Amino acid sequence: AKTNAALMARRRAALPAGLGQTYEVFADHAEGAEIWDVEGRRYIDFAGGIAVLNTGHRHPKIVEAVKAQLDKVHHTCFQVLAYEPYVELAERLIAKAPGNFAKKAFFLSTGAEAVENAIKIARAATQRQAVIAFGGGFHGRTLLGMALTGKVAPYKAGFGPFPAEIYHAEYPNPLHGISVADALRSVEHIFKYDVEPQRVAAIILEPVQGEGGFYVAPREFAQALRALCDQHGIVLIADEVQTGAGRTGTWLACEQWGVAPDLITMAKSMAGGFPLSAVIGKAEIMDKPLPGGLGGTYAGNPLACAAALAVLDVFEEERLLERSRAVGERLQAGLRALAQQHPEIQDVRGLGAMVAIELFDGGDHSKPAVELTKRMCAEALKRGLVLLSCGVYANVIRILVPLTASDALLDEGLAIMGEALKAAKG
Ligand code: PMP
């Protein structure tokens, strides 16, 4: 019989070290919010393939839609011969994006590509070069994605030089001493110290920082950035690769801003596990690059488009936005109860079902509990729960459980989190 240990040995021999792996487990099959490994062990999936499985593993409607598409056509390259599901998906996503203006959308395969393309479009539209991103932000592993990312190790270390004209401002994070006013001042500092606003093409931010630690940008911060962008003719980009597709209780997190970004990037859960990403935005900006300047051989693959259309149907039929808010409330309530027993948990936060706890040794905010966080994840895995950590300080545990998970399964996962923390403290 296959074992995780034997497969890990083969993996180590054949694959480079730079390809990280959180747990030494090989999946065999999965369903809903559960995974079984090659040794027959069952796990509750609180990681969701890093925010990809809001509709769960192998949702029957999505599997059925992909199978049906597979029997018709599975590749033409959209820029050679088109197919309707691509256009229908663009129409439906445009209708769901905020902003009282004409919009267009097109597709790529990965989150990093969507981000790259949003920057390309902003530069072409403004004929400017500079881009402002935020410390702690994550935007992908391509050259431009790395340059925009605001975390050195492990994402940027050793991979430079990076593209020029990328500047980092501070992201609001009161827990770590950065107020909204501080963050806005740091943008003004870039205008003073580094580049005049008339040369800035775009400001890109995650509505909730994902890899950076599940820090939520307050509404007033987004509104202030919107005003700043309007004042200086800068394109505002919401990177919704992790927050999008219903994770935060609305289809897009930026719907909760009360102001609309010019461009939005999506990926991950939008196609329920099939490789698809999108740039959605203001038509007059989206139309600026020359024909042929956008696209890709696999971009907007028919199977992925069929999956994404099924994801939209499932969200409507199963009222998953409501469910996202309910899942978030249930998780936060459970984690708050846990925080009462464990002073190490100093923050329980989130937006919709994008929920996290932040751990500090002895509850001291100057001591991020890096080792405790690692041990808690390891203890959870032993007890059959897949947890993910994140954060600039590596002391955050985030939950990205499928929104289709039952309350019973959520409670089972929460109980394991409690046992795991107890065990991790020793
Ligand atoms: N942007 C954000 C906000 C992300 O969370 C990620 C992935 N974690 C990316 C971009 C990059 O996506 P991908 O890995 O699909 O390239």
UniProtKB/TrEMBL annotation:
GO terms (BP aspect): gamma-aminobutyric acid metabolic process
Highest taxon of the lineage: Bacteria
UniProt keyword annotation of Transferase present: yes
Keywords assigned: Aminotransferase, Pyridoxal phosphate, Transferase
Entry-linked Gene3D superfamilies: Aspartate Aminotransferase, domain 1 (3.90.1150.10), Type I PLP-dependent aspartate aminotransferase-like (Major domain) (3.40.640.10)
Record-linked InterPro entries: 4NH2But_aminotransferase_bac (IPR004632), Aminotrans_3 (IPR005814), Aminotrans_3_PPA_site (IPR049704), Class-III_PLP-dep_AT (IPR050103), PyrdxlP-dep_Trfase (IPR015424), PyrdxlP-dep_Trfase_major (IPR015421), PyrdxlP-dep_Trfase_small (IPR015422)
Cofactor(s) it depends on: pyridoxal 5'-phosphate
Molecular function as annotated in GO: 4-aminobutyrate:2-oxoglutarate transaminase activity; 5-aminovalerate transaminase activity; identical protein binding; pyridoxal phosphate binding
Key word Transferase present: yes
EC number(s) recorded for this UniProt protein: 2.6.1.48
NCBIfam families: GABAtrnsam
Protein family (similarity comment): Belongs to the class-III pyridoxal-phosphate-dependent aminotransferase family.
Name of the protein described by the UniProt record: 4-aminobutyrate transaminase
Organism of derivation: Tepidimonas fonticaldi
Name of the coding gene: davT
